[in-house]
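Hi, here's the filled form for the chain we discussed.

Project: internal
Contact: R.S.
Residues: 126
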Amino acid sequence: MATLPSWGESHQEDEPSSVTKSAGSLEPTFQRTARIWWAWVWRSVLFGGAAGLFGSVILSLSGILDHLSERAGQYLSAAIGIALAVPVGIWVFQMVLEKDFGEFRIRLVPKAPPSASSSPSFDQSS
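And the returned structure, exactly as it came back:
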């Protein structure tokens, strides 16, 4: 019985591109996935914590929190935390994408263009 594609899936099978076929590929096993996840988690905690500490020190030294209500200080701290977390998180993710994991690396490979035979054909002669 055929299943419907889930959200984000294309109607065609994802075929490995010629680059992937020539370079070979590895199965995304639990162990490999856990190595990638751990590389991302510890870096996120370390660099995210450092960015948060930096933001806290700047807020404390500036004295701005002394002139705000407690609620406003919480909102300001949260906004600065988000403003620091987003670029740091993207930078950490980029670091993981560039990392050599020993037996493998993560590679961004462009999808192969759909072949002419798999695209729907419309007869325009009528």
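Let me know if anything looks off before we file it.
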